[in-house]
Design a protein that fits this description.
The chain is globular. The mean pLDDT is about 95. Helix 4 packs parallel to helix 8 (about 240-255), helix 6 crosses helix 9 and helix 8 (about 240-255) packs across helix 10. It folds into two domains: about 10-105, Phosphorylase Kinase, domain 1 (2-Layer Sandwich), CATH 3.30.200.20; about 120-305, Aminoglycoside phosphotransferase (APH), C-terminal lobe (Aminoglycoside 3'-phosphotransferase, Chain: A, domain 2), CATH 3.90.1200. It contains ten helices and ten strands. It has about 300 residues and is α+β, with helices and mostly antiparallel strands.
C-alpha cells in the first residue's frame, strides 16, 4: 500500500508533547503493518478522532469494517475488553483486536452522529444508552476513582494558579473525596458525547450505538458532563445558557433514571477537572492559555455553576 499521510487535524496533536510526537512518527508504519497483517483493503480516505487514526476497510471475506489505531494511553488500554463485554449491545461490535498496538477492527457504522440532532433529543438518546453500557464491573478494568483521585491531587497542587474560582476548587476536592470513597457499581464509557454515538443497525432496525469508550469501573453518574459542555454555542438559542445546560442535564437524568444530586456532584467535579487539564496543557508547553483554552475553561466553569444554581 502507498505511504500513509496523517490527517492534519491529528498531526497537530504533536503540540501536546513528546509522547504524542513519538506515536505520530510511528503511526503510518504501525497502521500499514496492521492492514497488511490482517489482509485488509483500504476503501476510502482516512479520518481521525482526538487520538486515533481510522479508515474504512474490507476484510478478507469482503465484509465492510473499520480499522482504528489509537494512542497507547492508559484510558484506552481496555477499550477492546469493554467492547467484547458489550457484544454490540448499545455499542459498536468488535471484530478483532491487537491491544499491544491499540488496533481494533470494528463493524462499519454510518458516520452520522448526534451533532445535528436537537440537543435535548440527543441527550435522551444518550441517556437511553446508559442502561446497555453500564454492565457490572469487570475485574480487568481500572477503577475510575483512581483516575479522579490523581486528577484531583493535581488540581489541588495547582489551586493557586488554575483559572477557576477557589471556592469551586475547594468544593471539587471535597466532592471527589466523598464520591471516590464509594465502590464502583458499573462499567462506565467515560467519554460519551454527541460525536461518539453513530447510527448503526440491530435486528434490521436503525439504532444509535456508542463508539470510542475510555472504559473503567465506576459510577454511572460520572457519564453526563461531556454532553453538557459540547455544542456549547447552541445553549443560548432558546432561553439562557443556564437554562440550556439544565435542560440537557435533566433530559439525561430523567431518561436514565439517575439520582439527580449525585449526577450534579459528578458534573461539578468533572467540569473543574476538565478546566484544569487546559491549564496543565499550557503549563507543560511553557505558554499562556490560548484563546480557545480560555474559552474552554469558561465553558467548564459555566457548566459547573449552572447545574448548582
Amino acid at each position: 500500500m502507498p505511504p500513509l499521510t496523517i490527517p492534519p487535524g491529528l498531526d497537530r496533536q504533536r503540540a501536546l508533547g513528546p509522547a504524542w510526537e513519538a506515536w505520530l512518527d510511528r503511526l503510518p508504519g504501525l497502521f500499514a503493518g496492521v492492514v497488511e497483517e490482517w489482509e485488509l483493503v483500504l476503501e476510502g480516505p482516512l479520518w481521525h478522532g482526538f487520538c486515533s487514526l481510522v479508515a474504512p476497510v474490507a476484510t478478507p471475506s469482503g465484509a465492510d469494517a473499520v480499522l482504528k489505531v489509537g494512542l497507547p494511553d492508559d484510558e484506552s488500554e481496555h477499550e477492546h475488553l469493554a467492547l467484547q463485554r458489550w457484544r454490540g449491545r448499545g455499542a459498536v461490535r468488535l471484530l478483532r483486536a491487537d491491544p499491544a498496538r491499540r488496533a481494533l477492527l470494528l463493524e462499519r457504522l454510518d458516520r452520522t452522529d448526534l451533532t445535528d440532532h436537537w440537543d435535548q433529543e440527543a441527550c435522551e438518546i444518550v441517556g437511553s444508552l446508559y442502561g446497555d453500557l453500564h454492565v457490572p464491573p469487570m475485574p480487568q478494568l481500572r477503577e475510575q476513582a483512581a483516575y479522579v483521585v490523581r486528577w484531583t491531587a493535581a488540581l489541588e497542587r495547582d489551586a493557586h494558579a488554575v483559572p477557576v474560582p477557589r471556592r469551586l476548587v475547594e468544593q471539587v476536592v471535597g466532592l471527589a473525596r466523598d464520591l471516590c470513597a464509594e465502590p464502583a457499581t458499573a462499567v462506565v464509557h467515560g467519554d460519551l458525547h454527541y460525536e461518539n454515538v453513530l447510527l448503526g443497525e440491530r435486528s434490521g432496525e436503525p439504532r444509535w450505538l456508542a463508539i470510542d469508550p475510555k472504559p473503567a469501573n465506576g459510577d454511572p453518574h460520572y457519564e453526563l458532563q461531556p454532553m453538557l459542555k459540547d455544542r456549547f454555542e447552541e445553549l443560548g438559542a432558546v432561553g439562557t445558557v443556564r437554562d440550556g445546560i439544565r435542560r440537557r442535564f435533566h433530559a439525561l437524568v430523567d431518561t436514565a433514571g439517575l439520582d439527580e444530586p449525585r449526577a450534579r456532584d459528578w458534573v461539578v467535579v468533572r467540569s473543574v477537572l476538565d478546566a484544569h487539564w487546559a491549564h496543565d496543557d499550557a503549563v507543560r508547553a511553557g505558554r499562556p492559555l490560548t484563546p480557545d483554552e480560555r474559552d474552554h475553561v469558561t465553558r467548564c466553569i459555566t457548566v459547573a455553576k449552572a447545574v448548582q444554581d
